[in-house]
Recover the amino acids of this structure.
């Protein structure tokens, strides 16, 4: 049974056209994370939520926003995608910060 | 900044051989985690080892932690072609519990 679900699995957008990626979880975990991973690189943390508390990494571009309307769902909004934003976007959850993370399958974003 | 750094960056072995990869980190930790990522997929948690533990096992996986050397190792015994993947260590840094990931070790197991 899928525990962390990401939709869509593949997303194609145009340069500058806003795009939203979604993540849902059935684990009822407190913490949800968004990572950006480019080819052959480490997953880079963009932000995380501890319940409703939003924590933005210092080097996350302003172009990236997030919403967590309830425990189960979290969204990543890219307001004006650039070519450099093409990447795999990974959502993860954990029951507490720093504990085992459960990852979704990722959404691969292509910017044309 | 990255806390964990894996070594080697790439490892190529034959099926049945053991694979060892290492992770070094810079600051004190609460725990250290190892993950596997198959090509183009999400990460899968393998083992979490806490700072007061020295060794943990899970099936064919063995993880050690040496806090005096700020390093950890992941051993995969009797490797299989299905073990082909990238392996990442992750740990918190600078007093934060939020884990950051190293660049990973790319393991190829030839059948």
């Amino acid at each position: 049974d899928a525990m962390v679900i990401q939709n869509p699995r593949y997303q194609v957008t145009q340069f500058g056209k806003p795009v939203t990626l979604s993540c849902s979880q059935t684990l009822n975990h407190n913490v949800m994370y968004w990572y950006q991973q480019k080819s052959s690189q480490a997953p880079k943390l963009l932000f995380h939520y501890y319940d409703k508390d939003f924590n933005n990494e210092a080097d996350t571009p302003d172009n990236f926003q997030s919403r967590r309307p309830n425990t189960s769902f979290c969204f990543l909004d890219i307001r004006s995608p650039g070519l450099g934003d093409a990447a795999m976007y990974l959502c993860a959850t954990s029951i507490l910060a720093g504990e085992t993370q459960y990852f979704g399958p990722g959404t691969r974003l292509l910017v044309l | 900044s990255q806390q964990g750094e894996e070594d080697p960056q790439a490892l190529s072995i034959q099926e049945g051989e053991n694979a060892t990869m290492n992770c070094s980190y810079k600051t004190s930790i609460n725990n250290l985690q190892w993950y596997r990522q198959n090509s183009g997929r999400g990460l899968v948690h393998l083992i979490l080892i806490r700072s007061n533990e020295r060794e943990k096992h899970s099936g064919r996986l063995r993880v050690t932690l040496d806090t005096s050397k700020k390093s950890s190792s992941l051993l995969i015994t009797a490797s299989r072609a299905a073990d082909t993947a990238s392996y990442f260590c992750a740990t918190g840094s600078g007093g934060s519990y939020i884990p950051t990931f190293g660049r990973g070790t790319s393991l190829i197991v030839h059948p």
